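User: I'm putting together notes for a lab meeting next week and I want to include a structural view of one of the chains we've been expressing. I don't have a solved structure, so I'd like a prediction I can at least talk through. The sequence is below, exactly as it appears in our construct file.
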Amino acid sequence: MSISKSDTTDVCEIIPAAKTRNTTTTILKTRQLSPPRVITGRERRWLNPNKGAFKLLERYMDILVSRFLYPHLAAVWNPYSWLLEKRFVLAETSLSPQDWPAEVNPLRVLLLSDIHCGIFLKPEPLAKIICSLMELKPDLVAISGDIVTGHSSEVTQFLDALAPLSGAPLGGWYCYGNHDYFGGDPEDIRKNLKSIGITTLKNDSLLLKHGKGSFILGGIDDYILGAPDWNKMLSRHGAPHILLAHNPDFFYEAEANRVPLTLSGHTHGGQVTVEILDMSVNPAAYFTRYVYGLYRLDRASAYVTRGIGTIGIPVRIGAPPEITLLRLRKA
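Assistant: Thanks for the context. Below is the predicted structure for the 331-residue chain, given as structure tokens.
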């Protein structure tokens, strides 16, 4: 059963552990992000996510397992929930994107990604974390894709846990990720999120007023399984000041279209990263140019979050689950 935006306060009040920061471990761990890495625009990935026998085999195996195996295990196996509560980190940073509107008041954006509702995760731990973070009073909540693991219906039992995210003054906003297309109808995700006050942006944008100024928020469809349409999105208000793009490989196009800030996920920060002989082994580095953190290319910036959930195995090593609070202001 879903709840309306006006009921979101009650959801947090019935979770005693989320009432104050002192009574829960969900956001006791915080850390500051490292400064942006300056890139050249000539970086290349080893494997193309849309071509090649290995990548196509990996993709369809992921779809088959997520869609047809995991649903049979989800009711009895949720091994990731305890790890999420113990390892969760709130990442924080202050940014001054180039070409940010001068009249816009300082903006606090709470960024979530890759929640992967379904197997491995229960709604209760997620609800505790969300209620705790909403006490930080973000102005806007952004969710950059992969809200489900294998089927669009998986989000339904998590709606009550997600509902408080729509309580931000400038609303809660979502863009599609590749897992949102694995099974069922992605339109059902949009409808379910709308029922709790969260709006999906699919090749679309809108103008949001904040203080004495306004900024443009946009969201583009998934890079791999969606149908991204830059012309459609740009035709509304021009280039967004903030772009929600699940796959960080959109960053080159975002920079070319003069988007000041792109917010992405998808990589999980590698999910399992290890140090061998002073070298970092990160599986995500073979599939994308941007694995994790802040990046800058000329006048454009991007942030790639590790996200919250897991795929494949219910484990994160060297890449703890996180939600990020970004403080944006004119330089």
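A couple of points you could mention at the meeting. Residues 67 and 256 are 36 Å apart (CA to CA). The radius of gyration is 18 Å.

User: Perfect, that's what I needed.
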